[in-house]
């Protein structure tokens, strides 16, 4: 039986009795953990929800290259530079897998990119914050990749085959990314007083935005109930956020850094850390286009797309030439 919800802006979930026979069959397959593939029948709103989520995820990966790309030329050593370069390239690759997964649902890459550039499609709130110092690269790897993995590990088991398979590879790379971020933080936290202060400052600025990455609280999340019924999401936003807090507090203690939350404390009864109130007003400002870097991030993406046009055209011309050559040779 599926929860009946009052219509409060949070999308209503159909009861089994209200479903059409096709919808019931579809739900039975989802409940039996049978993956849904691109050519299978699916409710139109399942398809639309997936396009929204997967494309938002793809856009996040490629916009997420910008705050880190900002530090490639200023990395403190050749080794750090090579590692960061590889990480940023990985994020571009994640974008590619995810755009490909979204394309299986019937939209072209051009349409998806156009939705990003016109501001119609969202990308993760976190990438609208600036990376001000080298320590931010550590904080992004540790916290942002850490929050991303917490969410993505569960998406490996989501109901849509192409998305879940893309997630398996992405998660392997993301866990390496998190380790490299923590390694930067450890070096800084064990370095000179100035370095430790820089690490603490980065943690202070990235902590709360990282918690916001999980999305609004479940009672304010319009899509969660339906997405969980369809196993597009396996857990609610609050549960994953709590897991992230529980995992990260001991890591901060090990670094001897302080999380910027006076209300953070272990709750013996719940077996979890309690934490302070999230500033949801800031979150909604950011996702509605008014964060510190929204405009510059979009400008940079549009410029990169325009400047890369000749590369795409050259690649297509080369592929066409090769096919024509093969045909004449055959
Ligand atoms: N930012 O009802 P819900 C990464 C929107 S990857 C912006 O809870 P849903 C790797 C949401 O779209 C990070 N918007 O929505 C990396 C909806 O808007 P709409 C990205 C947000 O979809 C690391 C509205 O609020 N990861 O970081 C955010 O069920 C380092 C209502 O929310 C993914 O995308 C947000 N944080 O749950 C790369 C994972 N949260 O359409 C480079 C896949 C919510 O109604 C460097 N996505 N919104 O106007 C998901 O798991 C889900 O989409 C959630 C949101 C959990 C993000």
Please tell me about this protein's structure.
With 330 residues, this protein is mainly α. Helix content is 65%, strand content 2%. It contains 13 helices and two strands; from the N terminus they run ααααααααααββααα. The protein has helices spanning 21-31, 44-63, 65-69, 78-103, 109-117, 134-155, 161-189, 193-212, 224-229, 237-255, 280-290, 294-307, 309-329; strands at 265-267, 272-274. The longest helix has 29 residues, at 161-189. The chain is globular. The model is unreliable at 1-8 (pLDDT under 50). Phenylacetyl coenzyme A binds next to helix 2, helix 6 and helix 9.
The helix/strand class is mainly alpha
Q: How many strands, which pairing sense, and closed or not: the largest β-sheet? A: 2 strands, antiparallel
Write down the secondary-structure element order.
Answer: HHHHHHHHHHEEHHH
How many helical elements?
13
Average pLDDT figure: 95
Apparent shape: globular
Question: How many strands in all?
Answer: 2
Specify the oligomeric state.
single chain
**Ligands bound, unique:** Phenylacetyl coenzyme A
Q: What proportion of the residues is helical, as a percent range?
A: 55-70%
Which strand order does the major sheet show? 1-2
**Percent of residues in beta strands?**
under 5%
Parts with pLDDT < 50 across at least 5 consecutive residues: 1-8
- Distance from N terminus to C terminus (CA atoms, Å) equals 60 Å
* Gyration radius, in Å: 21 Å
């Amino acid at each position: 039986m599926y929860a009946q919800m009052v219509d409060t802006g949070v999308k209503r979930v159909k009861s089994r009795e209200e479903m059409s026979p096709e919808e019931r069959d579809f739900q039975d397959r989802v409940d039996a953990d049978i993956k849904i593939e691109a050519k299978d029948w699916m409710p139109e709103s399942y398809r639309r929800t997936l396009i929204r989520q997967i494309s938002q995820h793809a856009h996040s990966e490629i916009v997420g290259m910008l705050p880190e790309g900002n530090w490639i030329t200023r990395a403190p050593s050749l080794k750090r530079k090579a590692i960061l370069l590889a990480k940023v390239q990985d994020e571009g690759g994640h974008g590619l897998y995810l755009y490909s997964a979204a394309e299986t649902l019937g939209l072209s890459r051009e349409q998806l990119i156009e939705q990003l550039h016109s501001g119609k499609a969202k990308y993760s709130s976190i990438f609208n914050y600036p990376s001000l110092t080298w320590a931010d690269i550590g904080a992004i790897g540790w916290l942002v990749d850490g929050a991303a993995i917490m969410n993505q590990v569960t998406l490996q088991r989501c109901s849509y085959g192409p998305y879940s398979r893309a997630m398996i590879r992405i998660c392997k790379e993301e866990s390496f990314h998190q380790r490299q971020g923590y390694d930067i933080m450890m070096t800084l936290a064990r370095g000179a007083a100035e370095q430790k202060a820089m690490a603490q400052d980065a943690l202070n600025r990235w902590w709360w935005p990282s918690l916001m990455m999980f999305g609004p609280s479940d009672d304010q999340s319009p899509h969660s109930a339906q997405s969980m019924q369809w196993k597009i999401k396996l857990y609610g936003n609050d549960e994953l956020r709590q897991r992230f807090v529980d995992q990260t507090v001991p890591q901060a203690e090990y670094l001897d850094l302080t999380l910027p939350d006076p209300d953070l404390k272990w709750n013996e009864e719940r077996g979890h850390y309690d934490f302070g109130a999230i500033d949801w007003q800031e979150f909604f400002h950011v996702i509605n286009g008014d964060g510190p870097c929204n405009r510059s991030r979009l400008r940079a993406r549009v410029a990169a797309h325009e400047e890369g046009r000749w590369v795409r055209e050259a690649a297509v011309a080369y592929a066409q030439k090769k096919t024509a050559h093969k045909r004449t040779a055959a």
